[in-house]
């Protein structure tokens, strides 16, 4: 699986954080614009109120002396309101402060007066900084709390999905019982559960039927094969012509091959059915040497050099299956090694490696471990030996790989 893929909960939480952040930023900008407009309107109303108060005082014959207010008689007639900003030096704080002013010319008691009133302008930089900090703290708290709540809620909602996902990962059609998934109160998850259970149950039933047929067929053919071989043995004891004797030999060879195939299919069926659950401590080096010793005559007959090197490796495994695995790999090496060639076996605590000299087998490595796949050089093989090897490795949680390089076939079993 690609390690760059993101988990569903993390993906939804990240999208939530991104969407919430964008919404809060937009809300913050909108809030600042609205607040600025409201403050500006409030200052304008305050300036108008001061202006109207001064006009009333002048009409009453009083010329007011108000700080930050300028009153001058002018010849120009009445003008419209003019708002603006100005900097005024504060002698106390020794800095310039920002003020907003209203300037307007009005006719009062027959005279034109230009009046300018001023009011302290809110320091927007400081005001913005304060609001920004408060808003940032609140927004961060809101986003964090929302993300936590969203994560916990999503995890609770998606829990049945992830539980069923783990069950699906462990599902095998060779399991003794059909798969049972966790129920959910969410309609979509429940529909998914029903569809998956129906689909996997159908696959399980079909595999069970196929497995039962294979086992029954293998068992039922054992007796007829034994009878045929017995009859052929008896026929070979009678005086027959050379041609008939040759036919009997070919028939016995076919029966032997069919018997081996039958036993191999039965073994595969048992492996699919997890029939070999008993495991014990064993010395794999001893098993390797035993199987090599049993096949010593075959190596000698074909003048094949056998080289073995093994460490004293002990592991928990099924004894019979380990013997079959080693025997099949050695037999495969004998089949594909030319006379005078070399076969080597090396066992370490991490892996078991078989190598043999020979020509390319004419099969893609991906097809090599499939059933009834045989190389061009083998006419007597059942095509099931390497399929059994792979199945045995799967039962024990091992990995088997094949490679061919510079005239050497290599099978590697990694523990």
From TrEMBL:
Reactions catalysed according to its record: ATP + protein L-histidine = ADP + protein N-phospho-L-histidine
Query: What cellular component terms from Gene Ontology apply here?
Result: plasma membrane
Where is the Histidine kinase domain positioned along the sequence? 216-415
The keyword Transmembrane is assigned to this record: yes
Fetch the InterPro entries from UniProt.
Answer: HATPase_C_sf, HATPase_dom, His_kinase_dom, HisK_dim/P_dom, HisK_dim/P_sf, TCS_sensor_his_kinase
Q: Name one GO molecular function term.
A: phosphorelay sensor kinase activity
**What Gene3D superfamilies does the database record attribute to this sequence?**
1.10.287.130, Histidine kinase-like ATPase, C-terminal domain
Any Pfam family the entry gives: HATPase_c
Annotated keywords? Kinase, Membrane, Phosphoprotein, Transferase, Transmembrane, Transmembrane helix
User: What protein does this entry describe?
Assistant: histidine kinase
**Protein EC:** 2.7.13.3
Chain ranges passing through the membrane: 14-39, 131-153
């Amino acid at each position: 699986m690609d390690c760059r893929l993101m988990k569903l909960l993390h993906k939804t939480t990240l999208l939530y954080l991104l969407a919430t952040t964008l919404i809060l930023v937009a809300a913050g900008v909108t809030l600042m614009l609205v607040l600025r407009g409201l403050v500006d309107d409030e200052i304008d109303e305050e300036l108008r109120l001061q202006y109207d108060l001064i006009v009333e005082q002048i009409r009453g014959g009083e010329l007011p002396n108000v700080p930050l207010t300028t009153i001058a008689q002018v010849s120009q007639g009445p003008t419209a309101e003019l708002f603006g900003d100005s900097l005024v030096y504060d002698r106390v704080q020794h800095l310039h402060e920002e003020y907003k002013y209203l300037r307007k010319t009005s006719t009062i008691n027959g005279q034109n007066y230009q009046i300018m009133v001023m009011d302290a302008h809110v320091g927007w930089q400081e005001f913005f900084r304060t609001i920004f900090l408060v808003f940032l703290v609140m927004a961060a708290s809101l986003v964090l709390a929302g993300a936590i709540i969203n994560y916990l809620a999503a995890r609770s909602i998606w829990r049945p999905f992830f539980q069923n996902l783990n069950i699906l990962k462990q599902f095998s059609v060779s399991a003794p019982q059909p798969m049972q998934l966790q129920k959910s109160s969410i309609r979509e998850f429940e529909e998914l559960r029903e569809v998956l259970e129906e689909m996997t149950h159908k696959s399980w039933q079909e595999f069970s039927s196929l497995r039962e047929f294979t086992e029954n067929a293998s068992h039922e053919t054992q007796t007829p094969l034994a009878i045929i071989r017995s009859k052929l043995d008896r026929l070979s004891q009678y005086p027959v012509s050379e041609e008939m004797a040759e036919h009997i030999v070919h028939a016995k060879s076919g029966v032997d091959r069919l018997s081996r195939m039958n036993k191999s299919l039965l073994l595969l069926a048992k492996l699919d059915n997890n029939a070999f659950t008993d495991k014990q401590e064993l010395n794999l080096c001893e098993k390797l040497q035993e199987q090599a010793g049993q096949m010593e005559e075959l190596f000698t007959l074909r003048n094949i050099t056998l080289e073995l090197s093994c460490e004293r490796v002990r592991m928990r495994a099924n004894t019979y299956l380990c013997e079959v695995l080693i025997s099949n790999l050695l037999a495969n090496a004998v089949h594909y090694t030319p006379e005078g060639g070399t076969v080597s076996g090396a066992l370490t605590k991490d892996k078991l490696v078989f190598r043999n000299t020979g020509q390319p087998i004419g099969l893609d490595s991906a097809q090599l471990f499939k059933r009834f796949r045989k190389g061009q050089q083998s006419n007597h093989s059942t095509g099931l030996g390497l399929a059994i090897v792979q199945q045995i490795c799967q039962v024990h949680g091992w990995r088997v790989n094949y490679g061919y390089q510079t005239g050497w076939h290599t099978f590697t079993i990694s523990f």
